[in-house]
Each structure stands twice: as C-alpha cells, then as structure tokens.
Amino acid sequence: MPEVKNDLSNRVVIGSDVFVPLIKEVELQERIKALGKEISENYRGKVPVFIGVLNGAFLFLSDLIKNVTVDCEVDFFKLSSYGDEKISTGKVKLIKELSCDVSGRDIIIVEDIVDSGLSMKFIEDLIAPHNPASMSVVSLLVKPNSLRYNVKIDYIGFNIPSKFVIGYGLDYAQKYRNLRSIYVLSE
Ligand code: IMP
Ligand code: MG
Fold first, then answer.
1. Alpha-carbon gap, residue 113 to 95, rounded angstroms
2. Are 93 and 80 in contact, with CB atoms under 8 Å apart?
3. What is the pLDDT of residues 133-148, one digit of tens each?
4. How is domain 22-162 classified at the architecture level of CATH?
5. Helix then strand then coil, % of the chain, to nearest 5
6. Residues within 5 Å of ion ligand 2 by Cβ?
7. Among 63, 106, 112, 115, the one annotated catalytic
8. For the whole model, what pTM was predicted?
9. 131 upstream amide cis, omega within 30 of 0
10. How far apart are CA 123 and CA 83, in angstroms?
11. How many angstroms from the chain centroid is the CA of residue 138?
C-alpha cells in the first residue's frame, strides 16, 4: 500500500504522485455563490429540477442549491466512465436511472467536471427524448482543451488546464472526494 499523506492546506501525496492546490475552498465557495445567484435570476418563477451526476457532483450540487433562492427539486443519475485510472476509458455506463419524470420540466444538469464531453453528450441524449421544457448544464470545472464532443455548457465554475484533478467530489480510484479544495497533479 502506498503511503498517503493529506495536508489540507498544502499538498496531497499519493504514492509517488504529488497533488498541489489549484482552487482553494474559499474561491470555490465564492464562485458557487455567484453561480447560484445567476441561476436563481434566470429561473425566477420556475421550479427547476437539479440533476446531479454521481458520484463526483454530490458536493457541488449540495453547495450550489444552498445558494439557489427559487423552489427546486433534486434528482441524480449515476454514471461510470473512469474506472480506477487517471484517464477516461472512453465508455460511459448508466448505473442509476433518474427517479423523476423530466417531461415538461426545466432541467439543470449538474456535473463536477467536463473533460472530453462524452459523459455530458450521453446524458443529453438520454434526457432529450423525454421532452423536458428546457435543459441547461452547469459544470463546476471544464477542461476546454480536452473537449471532443459538441456539448453546450451554460454555466461554468472554472476553466482549468487538461490535467488530472482531485478533491471536492472528484476522485482518484474513488478516494479524496472529501478534500475541501481542488488539487492538481503536479509534473
Ligand atoms: P468526460 O466524459 O470525458 O467529459 O469525463 C467526465 C467525467 O470524468 C467526469 O464526470 C468525472 O467523473 C471524470 N473526470 C474527468 N476529468 C477528471 C479529473 O481530472 N479528475 C477526476 N475525475 C475526472
Ligand atoms: Mg462526474
């Protein structure tokens, strides 16, 4: 077992990999507050359904809706694409379906990160046939230089470099989701 040392204020060492802070907790929370405000203004008079993509988006979704001031509902999809590796397998699997009926509803898909865009394309194709009244996408992080699929992301928290990141919901082999900041793999 590699030794894991988590220093929340500084760096995260996982075996021979060193992760350094990219976006600190305060910056995350400030940006999420602004996103919540923007979404609340755009959905005034509506009751949107926030659809989180598990597992990665669970922290972001919970902090986001705490900053939303219109009535809203919450549901979740569960997808899997990365396995235990740092690079995508290029395949998306639906592991948990939605519980709610999206037809005629204003849907806001909540993602932790859009990398190639494959997962988002998969979700859009899954939801579109159910005829929602509207569908928008909010992603905390986007790697613009990695985008391979034509997906529209309506609300972006931060554009980041095409490097592997962990923390605040994002995992490496299912761990480190509990870190309060986002850390990036240093060269
Ligand atoms: P995409 O389908 O290539 O856009 O990848 C999206 C999914 O891969 C995200 O929802 C994440 O779960 C995962 N992912 C992409 N980049 C990273 C990363 O840097 N760290 C951890 N997970 C990532
Ligand atoms: Mg995800």
1. 18
2. yes
3. 999 999 999 999 999 9
4. 3-Layer(aba) Sandwich (3.40)
5. 25, 35, 45
6. 53, 56, 112
7. 115
8. 0.92
9. no
10. 18
11. 8
